[in-house]
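Researcher: Please predict.
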Amino acid sequence: MADFNSILEEARQLSCQERVRLIEALWDLIPPDVRAPLHEDWAPELERRIAAIEKGSEATIPWKLVRAEALKRIGYDNIR
């Protein structure tokens, strides 16, 4: 069985587009009840945004649209 370092080294050999696909596939493997660690500086901003959404003063955008726009901006709008 491969270890983390050997898998990471293999991932480095992939094209940027393939690495993006790999990241997406790995992210999809994380169960929804597992909380990913966040940098401590993110907490205040997340709390501010959650409060604004709950208050109704900030609109939300579906992930599918956000993802498509982000990929388009970096030139990977034809992935998947």
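Model: The mean pLDDT is 90.
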